[in-house]
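FORM 7B: Structural annotation worksheet

SECTION A. Query
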Amino acid sequence: MEERFKKIRKYSGLSQSAFAEKIGVSRRSVQIYEKDASSIPINKAREIAHICNISEKWFILGEGTMHVDSHKGAPDKASPIDSSIQILDEAEKETGIKLNPKQREAVAKILREELKKKELESKDNIITMMKAFKE
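SECTION B. Predicted structure
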């Protein structure tokens, strides 16, 4: 499983630190998971698969294909999950608002739905949503 974990991180093109932030763990945890992925709690493994748009079955069991939506085009095409994380990262940098992992996932979930419906109006809406979660 550690090879699959490392493959996910490398596929994302992120450093250990950036990937750790993306999945809501410490950089040290990423280092540990890359050497011994059996230490990943099952709920965290499922969360990582969801955040990265990776098949849980592939990540946890090594069965099937890596990508959930492998039929939707080239691997470098951003999924709604990747796009929502990128938009959220940009909004956090722009505003200086730092959401905790639960708040971040709640906002990212809303963003993914908006991106799927193509109804995301502007970054201002995201910033307003982030501020509401921080209150």
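SECTION C. Observations
The radius of gyration is 15 Å. The chain has two domains: 2-69, 80-134.

SECTION D. Sign-off
Analyst initials: ____
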